[in-house]
Amino acid sequence: MKLLVCISQVPDTTTKISFTDNDTKFNEDKVTYIVNPYDEWYALVRALELKEQLGGSVTIITVGTTSVEPIIRKALAIGADDAVRIDMEPKDAYSTAKAIADYASDKAYDIVLTGKETIDYNGSEVGGMIAGLLDLPFISLATSLNVNGDQAVMEIDIENGTEIITAKMPVVLSAAKGMAEARIPNMRGIMAARTKPITVLAGNTEALVEVTKFSLPQPKSAVKLIDPDNMDQLVELLHSEAKVI
Fold it and tell me: Which domain holds residue 110?
């Protein structure tokens, strides 16, 4: 079985976000980057579990410059067999998906996995675009994945229940919480990652989206504490200030 796992580099969740150049560029000063957790904890680990169960190989792929190689080595240390880096700056979801789809189009992967979204832009677009460009079925937000012959059997959470979806491979899916449990690289994996191959390919896909300006969300307002004996004030504030989202 051939599995392709798409990973992305994202700022650590503790990063204090700011912008430069008149709010048109993300400020990377003192930012620590990590593997996108949804890609690492769920998509990659489940792919490794399937490889251990059924045999085959797990390849990771990412779009980025040389700056992403540390996160590639982290994914290799967890257990991926090899890696592909498309050498270009990821400008938007489409250019990223197109670069990955162009690479995967003639490689006969059985399953292409992504995390459900990246924690920086939260767009949840790349997986669906890859599937569309490859003309393959796409299952979004899968919480489990098993293989039965030439069928991929997946579960997704729906309101008040779970939906089971079966699709003939090849298939593309995005992995959500529940797909697998996170793994920590051990020393053997870290040492082995140093010699695992990384294929670097030129990328030149065109972006369809241009960022004109970033802005931070409005700061949260202060919490108002109401004495539990003062219900009249609470009711008044619920009528005058509370917002239904």
Answer: 2-215
Q: How many domains does the chain have?
A: 1
Q: Would residue 93 count as lying in a domain?
A: yes
Write out pLDDT tens, residues 64-74.
Answer: 999 999 999 99
The answer to whether the beta carbons of residues 183 and 79 sit under 8 Å apart is: yes
DSSP label at residue 242: -
CA distances from 207 to 11, 63, 204 (A): 21, 13, 9
* Residue 64 in tokens: 């980025």
Q: Are 146 and 111 in contact (CB under 8 A)?
A: no
Q: What does DSSP assign to residue 208?
A: S
- Count CB atoms within 10 A of the CB of residue 214: 16
Query: Considering the entire predicted model, what is its pTM?
Result: 0.86
Residue 79 in 3-state DSSP?
coil
- Token pair of 145 as six digits: 């994945």
Q: Establish how many alpha carbons lie within 13 A of residue 234's alpha carbon, considering only the half-sphere containing its beta carbon.
A: 7
pLDDT digits (tens, 9 = 90+) for 14-63: 888 888 888 888 888 888 999 999 999 999 999 999 999 999 999 999 99
Angle formed at CA 93 by CA 211 and CA 41, multiple of 5 degrees: 120
Cα within 13 Å of Cα(112), Cβ side = 29
DSSP secondary structure, 46-65, as one string = HHHHHHHHH--EEEEEEE--
